[in-house]
Write a structure and sequence with these properties.
This protein is of the alpha/beta class and 100 residues long. It has helices at 20-34, 52-67, 79-87, 91-97; strands spanning 9-13, 17-18, 39-43, 49-50, 72-75, 98-99. The protein has one domain (10-99): 2-Layer Sandwich (Transcription Regulator spoIIAA).
Length: 100
C-alpha cells in the first residue's frame, strides 16, 4: 500500500522594512518560491514598515500560488502589515491569508 507524502511547506520571514527598496528583492524571493513545490507561509510578525508595491507583490504571489493549486498564508501579520492591507481595501485578503 502506497503512502501519500505531505506536500512540502515553504517558509519565509518577512523583513522589518518592506519599503520601496525592499520591493525588488521581495519580488524575486517570492517568484523563486512559486517555482518550488508546496504552500508558502510568510512570517509577518517582524514587519514594521510596508509599502504599497510590496503588498502588490504579495497579492500577485498569492494569485500565482492559487493558480497552481497551492496556498500562500501570512503567519501572525504585524499590526503594521494588517493595517497596510486594510488601508488599501484588502481586508478580505489579509483575513483569509492570516494564520496564527
Amino acid at each position: 500500500m502506497a503512502e501519500k507524502l505531505a506536500a512540502a511547506q515553504l517558509e519565509y520571514i518577512l523583513p522589518q522594512e518592506l519599503d520601496l527598496l525592499a520591493a525588488e528583492g521581495l519580488k524575486f524571493k517570492l517568484l523563486d518560491m512559486v517555482h518550488h513545490e508546496g504552500d508558502l507561509t510568510l512570517d509577518g510578525r517582524e514587519v514594521e514598515r510596508v509599502s504599497t508595491p510590496c503588498i502588490e507583490i504579495m497579492v500577485a504571489a498569492e494569485s500565482a500560488f492559487y493558480e497552481s493549486g497551492r496556498k500562500l498564508r501570512i503567519f501572525e501579520p504585524s499590526n503594521t502589515l494588517s493595517d497596510a492591507f486594510k488601508s488599501l481595501g484588502l481586508v478580505a485578503e489579509i483575513e483569509k491569508w492570516s494564520v496564527s
